[in-house]
Amino acid sequence: MAAERTWRKSSYSNGGTAESCVEVSLAQDALVRDTKNASGDVLAFSTPAWRALINSL
């Protein structure tokens, strides 16, 4: 599921390989993963939960 999606790197990343960064994939839900461990665990958010998270930041 996660491998077939389009991922976007955080705009706060400066593109360096040593930087900690996350990627997000938005479709019917929101998936978040660690850029340095793309095959690792993924956080999944429903659309309402993702909007609530973003609005609280």
UniProtKB/TrEMBL annotation:
Residues 6-56 form the DUF397 domain. This is DUF397 domain-containing protein. It holds the Pfam family DUF397. It comes from Lentzea miocenica.
